[in-house]
Design goal:
With about 270 residues, this protein is an alpha/beta fold. It is built from 7 helices and 9 strands, in the order αββββααββαβαβαβα.
Length: about 270
């Protein structure tokens, strides 16, 4: 654990001491989940050492601590993206802090564009694997052999099964697919979308993959979801925009919230 993570964990321990179990990263449209946390304490990223403040309007940039469905959770309400700074490891200190607080599970969420007709805007998609198309890696520069992190089970199979069960309990249709990471911030071209389809991707986005690599490097189990906000370039008749992302994201996010709450409720038993 780096010095900044140690300092941030100490601030959390002083603000709200607890045995945290699950860390959640909230992407676009999921911010409302943080309002449902009980016995809640909030700490702005700007008050925590090494926590990056996001420049994206839909990201609150605060650590939310409390109980959700009876489980102690530490929620990263908002993330910093690679395209904001050119640093693919920018979320390392927040993730190391979550581990220091006791979290064993990380649940990541994002907004994404669909490449498949059956995964329409407004859907929630369970991520089963990813393609790191950017070629960037947050472990570049790590100086020992722990950098050779195994990614064959990047998205924990047992957690995937638990999420399927939770979706069934919540009555939520939950398609599954492979997420491809583009660096952004520009949207993909129609040619790039056709390429992504050919390579086996089901959704594309500008986040999550670096966090998953870091979480696995830290020995954390990972599950992840996309809220589908649009079809990829060339698959819909209108232009892509971030305004559309912000408008549609809450529809899929409400489904992810229902699944997460059912999962946490079962975890607390």
């Amino acid at each position: 654990m780096n010095k900044q993570a140690h300092e941030s964990a100490a601030i959390v321990a002083k603000t709200r001491p607890a045995a945290y179990k699950v860390g959640i990263i909230l992407g676009s449209g999921l911010g409302s989940l943080a309002t449902e946390v009980e016995d809640c304490k909030r700490i702005a990223y700007s008050e925590l050492s090494g926590f990056p403040v996001s420049s994206v309007t839909a990201h609150a940039s605060e650590l939310v601590l409390g109980r959700l469905e009876g489980v102690e959770v530490a929620i990263l309400s908002g993330r910093a993206h690679y395209y904001e700074s050119g640093n693919s490891s920018i979320m390392r200190t927040p993730l190391e802090t979550l581990k220091a607080l006791g979290c064993e599970i990380i649940i990541a969420t994002n907004a994404a564009g669909s490449l498949r007709e059956h995964i329409a805007p407004g859907s929630a998609m369970l991520i089963t694997d990813h393609i790191n198309w950017s070629g960037l890696n947050p472990l570049i520069g790590e100086m020992d052999e722990s950098r050779f992190t195994d990614m064959s089970r990047a998205y924990d199979p047992e957690l995937q099964e638990a999420m399927r069960k939770a979706a069934k309990t919540a009555g939520v249709e939950l398609p599954e697919g492979v997420y491809m990471w583009f660096s952004g911030p520009s949207f993909e071209t129609p040619a790039e979308i056709r390429m992504a389809q050919t390579l086996g991707a089901d959704a594309v986005g500008m986040s999550t993959v670096p966090e998953v690599i870091l979480a696995r490097f830290l020995g954390l189990k990972v599950a992840a979801f996309s809220t589908i906000t649009n079809m990829g370039a060339g698959l819909q008749t209108h232009d892509l925009s971030h305004d559309e992302t912000k408008e549609i994201a809450p529809k899929g996010a409400s489904k992810i919230k229902a699944v997460l709450k059912a999962f946490l409720k079962d975890l607390s038993v």
